[in-house]
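re: the backbone from monday

yeah here it is again, tokenized this time
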């Protein structure tokens, strides 16, 4: 009865209601009630390649998930869940302020030492079994944009922040001004020396753009001249080094030539309009190089230096739907979305990845990020006029 009443509060008004409700319920079930934190998945070491070594512990809260998770809750009428999540988010980040760690546990703790459990055989022989996550101390500059965007969404949907939270957000902007020129490990947490990832730079731009907008609204006070100067410098660097004229696409790293599915969010998050030629060129390049039907891999084979081939990444496939819908390509977006719905299991759940050949779920399960992507894509389809 309680779950039925909770789900009845969902304000989604469109087709695919059953899939949206199932995804919303999944996010709620992945929420630690005492803090509001949402874990990426409830499992550890379910393999991205069966029999391989791509086995990670996802029982933690990634800041990169922040904005989209908060939007999913609030836009579907569950404002209190969104507010609690942001409250946890800003509380947890106080432990490392003004810098942000990539992930935290449900209590906001930062010590997530990774270790291998050699006495376990692993799922279908997929070893090693890992607990903890060694990516927790990487530099991933995109997290500053994710947290700031989450706060921007919350405030622009009627929420309020106290003086200490507002001060914290401005501090994140100052960190971005100081750090954005540095290489980092990027959104996909590849374990190699840092690089100048285009997506990371874009999210630094988004952090400053969101803070400047909140200043213009009178919700924050920021050092306007400095933030504008650095925001514009980031955009100039992205256009000069992150866009490949020959490929007519933004690329994975500065002066690179490889696709990266995270760049789809440049059109979804407003860096340029979704129908801008550079954004559409990026979508086409990603589709050509990373697509297989409605499915999209996050990066090309071999980029991460690990053996084996991983599957298509669930949320990236839904990002393409979101971008197509925002660009006015509703028929294509609808066809893709409905095709993606067929990859859910018998109770409507998705893992982190999808095997393009068999349709099987890969990676940790169920994956909050994939379900967030489904909700966001469905909501965008409705907002753009699909019925």
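seq for it, each position gets an aa:
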């Amino acid at each position: 009865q309680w779950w039925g009443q909770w789900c009845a509060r969902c304000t989604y008004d469109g087709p695919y209601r059953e899939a949206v409700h199932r995804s919303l319920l999944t996010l709620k079930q992945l929420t630690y009630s005492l803090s509001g934190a949402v874990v990426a998945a409830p499992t550890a070491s379910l393999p991205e390649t069966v029999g391989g070594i791509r086995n990670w512990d996802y029982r933690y809260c990634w800041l990169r998930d922040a904005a989209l998770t908060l939007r999913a809750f609030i836009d579907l009428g569950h404002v209190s869940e969104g507010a609690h999540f942001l409250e946890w988010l800003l509380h947890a980040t106080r432990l490392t302020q003004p810098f942000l760690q990539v992930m935290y546990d449900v209590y906001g703790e930062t010590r997530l030492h990774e270790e291998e459990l050699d006495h376990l055989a692993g799922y279908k022989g997929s070893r090693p079994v890992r607990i903890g996550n060694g990516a927790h101390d990487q530099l991933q500059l995109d997290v500053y944009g994710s947290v700031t965007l989450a706060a921007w969404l919350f405030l622009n949907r009627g929420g309020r922040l106290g003086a200490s939270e507002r001060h914290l957000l401005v501090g994140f902007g100052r960190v971005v001004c100081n750090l954005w020129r540095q290489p980092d490990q990027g959104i996909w947490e590849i374990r190699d020396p840092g690089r100048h990832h285009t997506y990371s730079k874009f999210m630094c731009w988004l952090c400053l753009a969101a803070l400047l907008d909140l200043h213009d609204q009178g919700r924050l006070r920021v050092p306007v001249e400095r933030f504008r100067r650095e925001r514009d410098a980031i955009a100039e660097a992205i256009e000069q080094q992150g866009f490949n004229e020959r490929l007519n696409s933004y690329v994975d790293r500065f002066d690179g030539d490889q696709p990266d599915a995270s760049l789809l969010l440049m059109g979804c998050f407003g860096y340029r309009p979704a129908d801008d030629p550079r954004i559409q060129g990026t979508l086409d390049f990603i589709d050509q190089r990373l697509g297989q039907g409605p499915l999209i891999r996050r990066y090309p084979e071999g980029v991460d230096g690990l053996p084996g081939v991983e599957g298509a990444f669930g949320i990236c496939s839904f990002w393409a739907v979101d971008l197509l819908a925002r660009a006015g390509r509703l028929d294509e977006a609808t066809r893709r979305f409905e095709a993606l719905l067929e990859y859910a299991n018998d109770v409507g759940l998705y893992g982190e990845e999808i095997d393009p050949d068999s349709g099987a779920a890969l990676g940790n399960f169920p994956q909050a990020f994939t379900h967030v992507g489904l909700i966001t894509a469905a909501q965008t389809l409705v907002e753009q006029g699909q019925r």
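The radius of gyration is 20 Å. The chain has a mean pLDDT of 93.
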